[in-house]
Write a structure and sequence with these properties.
3 domains; 13 strands; single chain; Heat Shock Protein 90; 6-stranded antiparallel beta sheet; rod-shaped; 57% helix; Beta-Lactamase; 499 residues; alpha+beta
């Protein structure tokens, strides 16, 4: 029902309806004009015709040369025009007649005219020589036009034209017009439907295009035809407008995207600043308190001997160095997390890098009497920033040294390299206690330490594993920790060398 209402409201239906109504009105007008005008026009035309016949017959009698075949000419005139002609002499002698009953009719008309007014006589034309009337013969159901005139030779001339045929012709003509009108209406309905479709199809296409444009879809374009009509020009204008709108919206989207990036960037910077201030203020409370305490002790000469003052100064220096390292690590972590650091990726030998880290930590290994197992003589090339990969290895390795314990007479750190899922995975295992299961996910957070009872000298800043997490997230590579039998194993993945 809704679709039907939409169709009835459409331009196509209205155009079709208008064309049909115009055709119907045209047929009605033709029938009306035919009914009202045709008979009167016919009578007017025949009136002029019989006037011409009167003049012609009058000329026959005036010109003696034309009287040779007068009777034959009169018969021809009567036959061609379906006339009845009667000519009487001035003594009422019938000189010519095409109908023997014509004289009786004339006598009856003369008698009737004596009692009728001019309006009742239906006078059509009159002058000093002739009179033309429309006669209605109710007795014989016959209507005709009668000319009564006097020729210049004083002969009386009567011409009668039946009107019945014209009335019948009007009826036939009207019936024909109605029949033709119905057929024309049916044919015109199909033609109107075709024409309305031709007119409305481009309009509907333009409407569909504008609807899509309203939804910011500029893919559809109007199909330009060879015709140079108004709809084609409108289609060209809409195509131009669509292209300009699409271009403008793309520029706006680009500008908006850049603005969103700027806002996001500003938001990240604000967040980074807040996070940095929060971390620094949280982590620097203890070293600042220690420095303040020992500095006050030095000022107040709590310990007068040189050895004690030296110890106080060393504590202050050590805490200052720790604070400096902590701030640097926080800055680095914050920049990595918020994408503010550029990674200079290149191909390098992972085995050589691991050996270098082991060499740097050799003193710590000897102090803690830890055996390192890493037997890789061949080179294994990976693609990353070697500076940050070294930081990951160093954090894992130093954590392993700090937490390594002797198990079954062995105090070891084992380093392995293997290929997993088209990546190179490095694992660092140390003998010792397992990490509680509930702590395995928490150790990657900032300043989180599993063993809070450790002294400040041996404990780290608590952000080393956070840096590992940030670096691996940047590369979108896996990292993690697993409890193993007799120890703990940390791992991280690196991209293989480029082919």
């Amino acid at each position: 029902m809704i679709k039907l209402r939409e169709k009835l409201k459409s331009v196509r239906f209205r155009l079709f309806l208008i064309l049909c109504i115009v055709i119907m009105l045209l047929v009605i007008c033709l029938v009306t004009i035919n009914s009202l005008v045709l008979e009167n026009f016919y009578i007017f035309s025949k009136t002029n015709t019989i006037k011409e016949i009167y003049n012609k017959i009058n000329n026959y009698y005036i010109n003696p040369d034309l009287q040779t075949n007068l009777e034959n000419e009169l018969k021809k005139i009567a036959f061609r025009n379906n006339f009845d002609i009667l000519i009487q002499s001035d003594t009422d002698l019938i000189l010519f007649s095409t109908n023997k009953d014509f004289l009786g009719s004339i006598e009856l008309i003369k008698e009737k005219n004596k009692t009728q007014t001019e309006e009742e006589q239906n006078l059509l034309y009159s002058d000093e020589n002739l009179t033309i009337r429309k006669i209605e013969d109710t007795n014989n159901s016959l209507n005709y036009i009668l000319l009564s005139g006097k020729l210049e030779n004083e002969y009386n001339l009567y011409i009668r034209i039946p009107i019945a045929p014209i009335e019948e012709s009007v009826r036939i003509s009207n019936n024909t017009l109605i029949t033709i009108g119905i057929l024309t209406l049916i044919i015109s309905a199909f033609v109107a439907s075709f024409i309305s479709r031709k007119f409305t199809e481009p309009i509907l296409q333009l409407n569909d295009i504008t609807k899509k444009m309203a939804n910011l879809n500029f893919e559809q374009k109007y199909r330009i035809s060879d015709s140079e009509d108004e709809i084609n020009e409108l289609g060209k204008s809409i195509n131009t407008m669509s292209d300009k709108l699409e271009s403008t919206i793309k520029e706006l989207r680009k500008t908006n995207s850049e603005l969103e990036k700027d806002i996001e960037e500003k938001s990240k910077i604000d967040e980074m600043r807040k996070q940095f201030i929060s971390d620094v203020s949280h982590e620097l409370k203890t070293p600042i308190a220690l420095i303040q305490g020992y500095a006050e002790g030095l000022i107040e000469n709590v310990n007068t001997d040189d050895e004690s003052r030296k110890f106080y100064a060393e504590v202050i220096l050590d805490e200052t160095n720790k604070m400096d390292l902590l701030v640097k690590q926080l800055l680095q972590l914050t920049k990595i997390e918020y994408g503010k650091l550029e990674f200079n990726n290149k191909q390098f030998d992972l085995c050589e890098l691991i050996k270098e880290v082991i060499r740097k930590c050799n003193v710590m290994l000897e102090e803690n009497k830890i055996e390192v197992l890493f037997d890789y003589e061949s080179s294994i090339y990976v693609y990353a920033d070697d500076f940050y990969i070294e930081q990951i290895i160093t954090n894992y390795f130093t954590n392993a040294i700090k937490n390594a314990k002797e198990i079954n007479g062995k105090k070891q750190i084992k380093i392995r390299i293997e290929e997993i899922e088209n990546k190179i995975r490095a694992t660092i295992f140390n003998t010792g206690d397992n990490i509680p299961e509930e702590e395995l996910d928490r150790i990657w957070g900032r300043f989180y330490k599993v063993d809070n009872s450790r002294n400040r000298e041996n404990s780290g800043s608590g952000i080393g594993l956070s840096i590992v997490k940030a670096i691996q997230n940047n590369y979108k590579n896996k990292y993690g920790v697993e409890n193993k039998e007799n120890g703990v194993e940390f791992y991280f993945d690196i991209d293989k060398q480029l082919n």
